[in-house]
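Lab manual, section 2.4: Encoding a predicted structure.

Procedure: take the sequence of the chain (100 residues), apply the prediction step described in section 2.3, and record the output as structure tokens. A sample record is shown.
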Amino acid sequence: VQEVRKIFLLLAASSKTLMWSLLSVTFVMYIFAVFLTDSSSSYLFAIDNKDWDDFDRQLHLDFGDIGKSLYSLYTAITAGRNWSTFVDPLQKVGWMPAGV
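Recorded output:
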């Protein structure tokens, strides 16, 4: 019983560190999502909607707004989707978004 109590006390003590770690990861993801959304939106705005190819449509689906960008980054980090499926459309935008 003493060991179980000690485990719960240690878990409670580490919860503050866990919260700050999750907040830091979320903040970094948000910064990258803003950058990727801005880059892809600027690229898609510069070309006419009728001239979009499959990569442009995929770019809009993955990085069309902040929520989609955050979800795309989350799925790439957690191995829900391979990062190469995101890089191919981003290469049309430029080397910097594809390199991020």
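Check your result against the sample. The chain is about 80% helix and 0% strand.
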